[in-house]
Amino acid sequence: MELDPVLELYGLPPEEFTAARNELARVLQVAGDVRSSASVKALRKPTIAAWLANRLVRIAPDMIAELTEFGSDLRDAHQSGDRVTLQRLTPRRHEIVDRLVEVAKADVADGRVVTATTAERLAATLDAALVDPGAAQLLRTGRLTTGLRHVGFGVVDEAGVPLPVVGAVPKRPLAQAARSAATARKAAVTRKPTADRTRKSAAEELRRRQRAEVQERLQHIEADYEVAEKERLDAESELDANEHHIADMRTAIERLSDELERARRELRQAQSRTRQLERALTRAGRNAAAARRRLDAQQQRLEALSD
Fold first, then answer.
1. Phi, psi at 31, each rounded to 5°
2. Which structural domain range is residue 130 located in?
3. Looking at residue 156, what DSSP letter applies?
4. Which of 24, 107, 139, 176 has minimal CB crowding within 10 Å?
5. Tens digit of each residue's pLDDT (9 = 90 or more) over 225-247
6. Does some domain include residue 272?
7. 125 within a domain of the structure (yes/no)
8. Which SUPFAM superfamilies does the entry mention (predicted)?
9. How many CB atoms lie within 10 A of CB 16?
10. Non-local CB neighbours of 290 within 8 Å, separated by 6+ positions
11. Is the full-model pTM beyond 0.90?
12. CB 140 within 8 A of CB 60
């Protein structure tokens, strides 16, 4: 199966995707390529946000390349913990994403409405491709079926600037650490071996219990996260389906409006024709009545002559 026809599917408006996909699957099946036909038939219809992202790959490839190339610089700065560079790059990060969203809105400004939710999902998709190389690769395929969202890239300050991740336990001042070490060394000289072993055993037992408690809490948090993430995905899927339904209904309303206007024109024409036929019937009725009167009069004359 050639890839071009499949790529072409993802460049079509969402309302045309299903029919075009089914037709391509039918053509492949008729040609005897049953496996490819089944693969095409299984292709998912893209969400509105995914379709807009796919459109950007086609109409603005240079801007998409700029996005992914800039993402490499941003990741390098983040991994190196270069806060100054991150502060400098972050405004451009938002600028690139916002500019691409505006390009997408302008491209579909022919009557299609890009909702605030869809615009946010498109921005999240572009931002995910910017910070994550895997997401960037998915975006470049031009075959997204759903929007992307990146979680866990790093922490941000109140201005939204990513910050390097630091350890959870703050470092003590050097002098304090030195005093503690000296105290520990001095105490170690006077401790008895048995007391050392006892404290070591108690410390290990304490750490073991702490690890067990943390592990148990982590399992509960992971379970809660899985439930919350599933609910989010379900809600996102329902919203996407509803947006598709709204788009389909708008298309149906436009089609039915055209049919209604055409029916109204035909009704007006039929009503006009009815009035013409009624007038013609009236004239024909008068002519028939006059002819009947003449016929009766002629018959009476004929009967009178016969007598």
1. -75, -5
2. 46-163
3. E
4. 176
5. 667 766 776 676 677 667 666 66
6. no
7. yes
8. Tropomyosin
9. 12
10. none
11. no
12. no
